[in-house]
Specification:
single chain; 434 residues; five-stranded parallel β-sheet; 18 strands
Length: 434
């Protein structure tokens, strides 16, 4: 596809007006001031997109999610994390089936594409059905079956652990590389030492990423200190070898300066989930301190149940505002740095090389944002407007690996009306069993 006369965010997230960008196959093959010419481009321009009044930017990489939980959107409102999980979510999830997980995931993929998300780091169960939804929608995902061992059973005999290994063996690199499989320990508080060490060993053995919840609440953090001789969750997980592989640490709300140094030194990405953390009253991640420490910070939505949407522009704005409040500095949270966190930082977390920036030779994971709308005009500075003025519904096109999956209200790969109907039906079927 040839995007002509369109503004872009270049690799430094600077705005460049009136550009030509050509995609071929799954890559960006040309960026320039003039229409591409020459024998190498003849017959290869494909459809032409008139970009007047529009912006082409990298798609969003959702660094932490639980996509099937669209099934429990609005279920268990007004509860803090512990009660929300134990009284509402866990009983519902105990009655889930694969078909329900498929439709919940597919519905989340439709919502993701609508809001410009091209890839999600997902943690859940019934992973075969999740992968089916990714493949049907042609989205990207890092998926894992997280391990929990509340009963301190032999971890090698644990069904969750065996499922995690099966997922890694089956799906890492699946779908022409669109699907990656991660190892995952759910959290410190939901496992014991033997389980944590075994999962860390598996990640090293199969050379895959790690995904884990870290220091989401104060009670979790203080409880960890009581359980493990004063160690914080970050210190404990590091001691167990969890950070030996490329790791996404979700939340990281309650950190010390020493924690941040460990995360930096171990090249751990923090996936901040601002809206979910606010909604569950878990706290505010100190993103400016993480930036200052040199930690890679990405942005996640968490599940559609604790958010309650996947509107990534809303997430990005909240992320920026909370950073200002947490630091007490209105000039904190440079919009270009925020945009990096929403795009390239998430691709780095997922281990996706050559993704997350508009550069020749990189993957064409792109979105088009309408700038010519009332909430965006007049524009003083484009990166600032994207962070603080734009809305998810300003996304008019979403492309993954060079294929347009959403454009102007239409989905190429998803029957969205069927997905909404079947997700609702699945929710009611599961609720009847709770």
């Amino acid at each position: 596809m040839l995007f002509e006369h369109i503004g872009i965010l270049d690799e430094n997230f600077d705005y460049r007006p009136d550009k030509f960008v050509l995609t071929f196959g799954d890559r960006i093959v040309y960026i320039g001031d003039k229409r591409p010419e020459g024998k190498s481009y003849e017959g290869n321009l494909g459809p032409v997109y008139n970009g007047k009044g529009k912006l082409l930017m990298p798609g969003f990489y959702n660094a932490h999610g639980h996509s099937p939980m669209s099934l429990v959107r609005g279920y268990g409102e007004g509860l803090e994390l512990g009660r929300w999980l134990n009284e509402r979510i866990f009983p519902f999830e105990a009655q889930l089936d694969g078909e329900a997980v498929y439709w919940g995931t597919l519905l989340s993929m439709a919502e993701s594409l609508r809001f410009g998300i091209v890839s999600t780091t997902d943690m859940y169960m019934w992973v075969d059905y999740m992968v089916r939804a990714y493949m049907d929608s042609r989205t990207k995902a890092n998926v894992c079956r997280s391990v929990t061992n509340f009963a301190h059973e032999d971890p090698e005999q644990l069904g969750f652990y065996k499922d995690m290994i099966d997922v890694i063996r089956m799906y890492d690199g699946f779908g022409e590389g669109r699907i990656k499989a991660d190892a995952s320990i759910h959290a410190e508080y939901s496992n014991d030492d033997a389980t944590a060490r075994l999962v860390a060993e598996a990640a090293r053995k199969y050379d895959v990423n790690m995904h884990v919840h870290v220091a989401e609440t104060l009670s979790e953090t203080e409880g960890c200190k009581e359980r493990h001789d004063g160690m914080t969750p970050v210190e404990y997980l590091d001691a167990m070898g969890i950070f030996d592989q490329n790791t996404t640490a979700a939340h990281c709300v309650w950190l010390t300066d020493d924690d941040r140094k460990i995360l930096r030194d171990r090249n751990v990405t923090v996936a901040s989930n601002p809206v979910s953390n606010l909604k569950l009253a878990s706290g505010i991640c100190n993103v400016p301190a993480l930036y200052d420490a040199g930690v890679n910070v990405a942005i996640g939505t968490d599940g559609p149940s604790s958010n309650n949407s996947l509107n990534f522009f809303e997430e990005m704005k909240t992320f920026a505002l909370l950073g200002k409040v947490k630091s007490g500095n209105a000039s904190a949270m440079d919009p270009k740095k925020v945009l990096y966190s929403a795009t390239r930082a998430g691709a780095v977390a997922q281990g996706r090389e050559h993704c997350g920036l508009i550069k020749e030779g990189w993957h064409a994971d792109l979105i088009v944002v309408d700038l010519d709308v009332p909430n965006m005009q007049p524009i003083e500075d484009v990166p600032t407007a994207l962070v603080f003025s734009a809305d998810g519904k300003d996304v008019v096109l979403t492309m993954v690996d060079g294929r347009v999956l959403y454009q102007d209200g239409k989905y190429e790969t998803i029957d969205v009306e069927k997905a909404m109907h079947m997700a609702k039906e699945s929710r009611e079927r599961v609720r009847a069993r709770v």
